[in-house]
Amino acid sequence: MKFLFDNWFAVRQARALNELLRPNHTVEHLRDKFPADSNMEDWVRALSSDGDWVLITGDHHPARSVHECRAWRESGLTIFFLTRDWQNIPPLQQHSRLLTVLNRIVAHAERRPASGFTISARGKMRKLYS
């Protein structure tokens, strides 16, 4: 399975997680895969057509606009939206907490493709759509 971390995360976080999950899974950062000026709808479409991607985003507003919401749902991607409470945690603690829920993220992504979830900083997952 391939995971993509958006610009909310530091590039080094994605690279560190990639080292931990290899060879079973890969983790890439948005900046390593797409130009900095790419709009969300374009890279979501590209990931969707490439297949088997799971997006992890710090964007706690999964539906800022009707277009974004439609792009998420129609993408066929499994997407994990971190909730707002992640913003109040220092980066190293964010990374540590993400590691504690990573096995559950992988399990959810394998069982429920094309779904959306929120993840709180305490590790609570809630299904948004499928």
Describe this structure in words.
- The chain has helices at residues 11-21, 30-33, 40-50, 66-75, 91-111; strands spanning 2-5, 26-29, 53-57, 78-82, 116-119, 125-129.
- The chain has one domain (2-129).
- It has a six-stranded mixed sheet with strand order 2-1-3-4-5-6.
- The two termini are 18 Å apart.
- Helix 3 (40-50) runs parallel beside helix 4.
- The chain is globular and about 30 Å long.
- It has five helices and six strands.
- Helix 1 links the parallel strand 1 (2-5) and strand 2 (26-29).
- It has 130 residues and is an alpha/beta fold.
Could you give a short account of the major beta sheet? 6 strands, mixed
Proportion of residues in extended strands: 15-25%
DSSP helical segment count:
5
Number of strands: 6
Number of domains: 1
Strand-pairing-aware structural class:
alpha/beta
User: Separation of termini?
Assistant: 18 Å
Rg value? 13 Å
Mean pLDDT across every amino acid position: 87
Strand order of the largest sheet: 2-1-3-4-5-6
List segments where confidence is low: pLDDT < 50 over at least 5 consecutive residues: none
Overall 3D shape: globular
Order of H and E elements: EHEHHEHEHEE
Q: Helix coverage percent of residues?
A: 40-55%
